[in-house]
Design brief:
The chain is mainly beta. The chain has one domain. It is built from one helix and seven strands, in the order αβββββββ. Strands 1-2-3-7-6 form a five-stranded mixed β-barrel. It starts with a helix and ends in a 12-residue tail after the last strand.
Length: about 140
């Protein structure tokens, strides 16, 4: 009888562990608010701030809602990386540097200055850019 009790406890523990398993990360299903090249990285206290600028280059892709943004990433920002095969994995703020190509989805209010200023809910690293760094079109 004691053996059956231990079997039940072991099975329940195994099911609990399976329930705690995390699934693969997924970026938001909506189009990003900005897609572009990181041209500036600065410290933002509990995270980092990135100047992201779209450039008309096939390697970057189509322009999203904005052509330039100052994007803040904090402890609540999901940072992901998309591989060439389309798979997505977790990444870190430190993986984003000048020349990194990213997509960002904003969370909360957007300061309508130029470039816009927003906090990212999610940032996906989609590659690196080897061309000349673009300047925000409205600041040229």
């Amino acid at each position: 009888m004691k053996r059956i009790g231990w079997i039940i406890v072991a099975a329940a523990a195994g099911l609990a562990l399976v329930g705690c398993a995390t699934s693969a990360p997924e970026p938001p299903s909506a189009e990003p608010d900005i897609r572009g090249v990181v041209t500036l990285v600065s410290d933002a206290g509990d995270g980092a701030s990135f100047r992201v600028v779209w450039t008309n280059d096939d390697a970057i892709g189509a322009q999203a809602d904005y052509d330039a943004a100052q994007v803040t990433a904090n402890a609540d920002t999901g940072i992901l990386s998309r591989a060439a095969d389309g798979s997505v994995s977790n990444a870190a703020i430190g993986d984003i540097a000048v020349g990194t190509v990213v997509e960002a989805w904003f969370e909360g209010p957007v300061a309508e200055s130029y470039p816009v200023q927003a906090t990212a809910g999610t940032i996906v690293i989609i590659g690196s850019y080897s061309g000349e760094l673009p300047e925000p079109p409205g600041l040229q």
